[in-house]
Amino acid sequence: MREAGNTDNLSQSLLRSKELKKDTLSFLEHVKSLPDMEKQVAKRKRKILEVLDGTEEDWVNWKWQLRNRIKDSVVLAKIIGLSDLDKKRIDKVGKLYRWAISPYYLSLLTEDFQSSPIYRQAIPDIRELAPGGSLDPMNEATTSPAPCVTRRYPDRMIINVTNQCAMYCRHCQRRRNIGEVDQHACLEDIGAAIDYVAQNKEIRDVLITGGDALMLSNQTLEFILDKLHNISHVEIKRIGTRIPVTMPQRITPELVDIIRKYPPIFINTQFNHPLEVTPEAKLACDRLAEGGVVLGNQAVLLRGINDEPFVMRKLCQELLKIRVRPYYIFHAKNVQGTCHFQTSIAQGLNIMESLRGHTSGLAIPTFIVNAPGGLGKIPIMPNYIQKIQKDKVFLRTWEGKIIQIENR
Fold this sequence. Notes:
Order of helices and strands: HHHHHHHHEEHEHEHHEHEHEHEEEEE
Mean pLDDT: 94
CATH superfamily of the largest domain: Aldolase class I
Radius of gyration: 23 Å
Distance between the termini: 44 Å
CATH class of the largest domain: Alpha Beta
Helix content: 25-40%
Shape: globular
Low-confidence stretches: none
Number of domains: 2
Number of helices: 15
Structural class: alpha/beta
CATH architecture of the largest domain: Alpha-Beta Barrel
CATH topology of the largest domain: TIM Barrel
Largest sheet: 9 strands, mixed
């Protein structure tokens, strides 16, 4: 027979288990609304290959994907069907802000494409012409002590190596650099940036970004990695890329073999929605992880895309399944032409509340606000400290319960 105390414990345990189960079942019910994309993607892919006169062999070739980026409203209309008004609006925005989308990323569109988070991130929106925002809210132009360099912190810095991307995201913070033509930084300027690193021994961490750093040729990327690897005070190299999301075909075994030679390398990418976590993205991330890369994700909080707590929780959980650690959620910067994507900081805090305790700590990124003027990242989190006294501290748990602990 169970002792009375044990029976009470079991009863309380079962009641607690029921409460916790209810929380997760609510989440699972909400994410049921996310579409099963396998058949839709296959259908869209067939249509894209038909319009672009491509083959299955072409589809897995990243150079074909790059050459065949869709950047014309007429071609886009042949693939997904657009009204004349849609095309006129795209063309009007395109005169001011360049756009392009890889065939692969376009294939991820849902049937109701204009409400798709894929469409909204990739295709020009007439709201981009609304006034407001800054072309350079981070003041990168005034934090560049050498060609291609951005430096805001004591021990780390950025080398901007290209303006080219597989897709030009509509929320891009560097849209001022996109220009009208794809252009990698010249080797002379890249060399000057590397010389700057070598001459400043306090720099231990270098981020190679752009544009998208993985748009460089294998040879150029290896040149940069090799030079940095042989600077004794550089401890880690980082690569900023959205390639696993927008053109995963670029993550070839040959590319991974190059990256493998220069550890430690950290790659931060940008998945913004669960629909972007595809089998192709998983393959790309698997290859990178097996090549010794530490993978992180820097999502941007975007209105109408991922500003719903259950969507962000699902994204973070899906990322862990493909060995990508959720690292940051960025509050959208006040970039010219992107005001329609911006959310309130309160929405970001609400999402952080919806993650802490409701999913594993590994799936919880840091919510970041970038200080205007290039003054750096500021972590923002819900206030779990209620009051601090000399001998005790009052804290709030993830469920809203107030507890006190000794303040020693």
